[in-house]
Amino acid sequence: MGGGNIEFGLSQSADSGQIVLQMRAYLFALGAFFLTAAAFGGATNGPAIVPLPQKMEVKEGRFLLGPATRIQMDEPSAATGEYLAGKLRASTGYSLPIYTNDEPVKGRIELTTKGANGALGPEGYELDVTPDGVSIKAPTQAGLFYGAQTLLQLFPPQIFSSTSVTKVAWEIPWAVHIEDEPRFQWRGFMLDCARHFFSKEDVERVLNEMALHKLNMFHWHLTDDQGWRIEIKKYPKLTEVGAWRKNASVTPPRNDDGELDTQNAHPGWSAPPKSAYGSDGRYGGFYSQDDVREVVAYAAKLHITVVPEIEMPGHAIAALAAYPEYSCDGGPFSTDTGAGVNRGVFCVGDEKVYTFLDDILSEVMQLFPGKYIHVGGDEVDMAAKKATWGKCDSCLAIMKSHGYTNLDQLQGYFTGRIGKFVNEHGKVLLGWSEIADAPLPKNAAVMDWIGGAVKTAMSGHDVVMCPTSYCYLDYYQSLDHSTEPYAIGNFLPLDRVYSFEPMPKGLEAQYQSHILGGQCNLWTEYVASLAHVEYMAFPRLCALAEVTWSPKDKRNWDDFSQRLRTHELRLAAFGVNYRRDLSVPIGEWKSSASGNSTNIQWDVTSQIKGAGQYHIVFYFAKGSGLPIHSVALLEDGKEVAADNHAGYAARNPSNPVYVLNLTAVKENAKYSVQASVGKANSSGKVTLYFKPKAQ
Ligand SMILES: [Zn+2]
């Protein structure tokens, strides 16, 4: 492998020529990085599997895939065998004949449920690679499928290309024995398709990316204030009206005149696709029921369950724009609404509303064979409740007849009725944390984003963990916002996702089985294209995959970071627009400094690449925080650039980014960064990012 593998990974990378060109230019600049990473992906380090398998033995040996390699499977495993063959054929260009007979052939890849170890569980598998062949055994097709995913990762990263790649030896340079099964049954990803619309093809691509990481629950956020995205036959206006709005509401990049500046767009950012505009120029789109069936079937082939989310009683403006009669005050409502908590909520005192919602859920439940139906329930805060239910005669009548003293009880009443309806249809109601503010309906499960998991699990209800501080992929991936596409705020770096522990502290062993697993959520208020979705999701979703699949005691950040260098080559081969971290660590600070002002210096000679901006960022790790007075760039000990603003590196930092403008590089000079800092009862690391001067 080498530089040549950059090109092929991109030729099928995106759906618009503009994005491809943009990414090509971007990756061209990264060529050097790729070569370095490729060198680390070689055979010497052992397999770099993500997520890490439970048990793996690596021995001397090698297996070579050739045009005559047979794929052999038992009858029930035909679909899994075809899937694997399809992947291998696409990148190798080999014909790879398939057989379903039992005759052992040298050099074959065998997939079978026969003789599988039943103790491996419903998603477990055993994988053996020897010079004579490959064997994947699993008690279920899901297990075999995951075995096939692991096998793909044993080949060179180019195996993930969807077009044929030449000049690669399709060799597994080890003999391997793997026994593997996931730690958690819920390994999820939520994509918000309401704030921005992503086509059926986009969603299917995301499903493929999930499968690559053994993620198995796709939470499809289908309705919100800004858009209703699923066809409901009985209420056509939901999509005729609710799926469209005036503005795409895309956020920067903008130039100094405030105009959209797509020329200089960040590689993570791209404009909404043209297909997301209707013939009248409005922004939006929706999935027909046929589209939904197709996506669900597509996911099932990848052993992914699709969990639909229909938001209620809040985040309902798109529905109310179409049918304002189901609100307390009759509206009007518009999908051209800002992000955040809005006051468009369903009336919970009007019987007509329950008929409306039951009708919708009946159609939804027919489309989704999985057992979970997510009904939202979040962010109807007390102000919103008071402004709507608190002023509505029907809602207040329910309060009175049930003796409620608090508007949260009214939401409990609503969740109870919807939960009962969902239950009667053999499904499980799932809702955000807030549904647990009132007694939960029978069997209901909670998706915990703001706390409460321990109490909920102890009350006998299942919980999926997705706390904002570890799982919200709409947060920034760097403190240096000028180097990132515009995001909602906050900071969720890769290592923090990796440090996520889904089992809540303090939950006694007897209740731990109620924690189903973990999930990352991508809200898309500021994300309007698939390329941007991929930028926000990867590699953070790779970390979540390992958190939810691999044994807790095997997780190791340094080891993961090392494997990720190879794994990123797979993402590149697959054409994923994952985030590349272009900053480099230049040093650390520790709690030893004393006095009101101290200078710390780091040698950066090797990082000086030319004239331009050098961004110095302070990333806090531990302690009380570091006051920063100023940062300077020294050339042979003499200051040549400085940024004198006051900053503070802490858990909640303030202005921790320093920009040093170097006008010209002096040959053979020694460069260092010097920070003047205050009392430092803390530690952290310092990074440098180079932005060349515009030509
Ligand atoms: Zn009402």
* Tally of DSSP helical segments: 19
CATH domain topology of the domain at 216-245 and 282-448: TIM Barrel
Small-molecule components bound:
zinc ion
Structure summary, number of beta strands = 30
By helix and strand content, what is the structural category? Answer: alpha/beta
Describe this structure in words.
This protein has 695 residues and is of the alpha/beta class. Among the domains are: 55-180, Chitobiase, domain 2, CATH 3.30.379; 216-245 and 282-448, TIM Barrel, CATH 3.20.20; 584-692, Sandwich (Jelly Rolls). The protein contains 19 helices and 30 strands. The strands form 7 sheets. An 8-stranded parallel barrel has the order 10-11-16-17-18-19-20-21, surrounded by 5 helices. Strands 1-9-6-7-5-3-4 form a 7-stranded mixed beta sheet, covered by helices on one side. Strands 23, 25, 26, 27 and 29 form a 5-stranded antiparallel beta sheet that branches. The longest helix is centred in the middle third of the chain and has 18 residues, at 407-424. It is globular and about 80 Å long. The two termini are 32 Å apart. The site of zinc ion (ZN) has 8 residues, from α12.
